[in-house]
Amino acid sequence: MDFFAVGGNVRMVLTLDPMHSDEWTQRAVMGMESQLGKLARAIASRGGK
Questions:
Q1: What value, to the nearest 5°, has the Cα angle with vertex 16 and ends 15 and 17?
Q2: pTM given for the model
Q3: Coil, strand, or helix at residue 38?
Q4: How many whole angstroms from its chain centre is CA 38?
């Protein structure tokens, strides 16, 4: 996970590597999407973009 200052914002770049099987890679992606959704809702609830 990398963070970059872009103007008055912060850009977060997340890179996931493939796991030992497609099934586990997809599970990891789904888990990260869930966590990022929670982060987005928390930021929005605090008046963020």
A1: 120
A2: 0.74
A3: helix
A4: 9
State how far the alpha carbon of 3 is from the alpha carbons of 19, 21, 22, 40, 47, in Å: 24, 28, 28, 15, 20
- SS3 call for 26: helix
Please, how many CA atoms are within 13 Å of residue 8, restricted to the half-sphere of its CB? 2
Classify 6 as helix, strand or coil.
strand
List, for residues 2-40, the tens digit of each pLDDT value. Answer: 999 999 999 999 999 999 999 999 999 999 999 999 999
Residues 6+ apart with CB under 8 A from 19: 25, 28
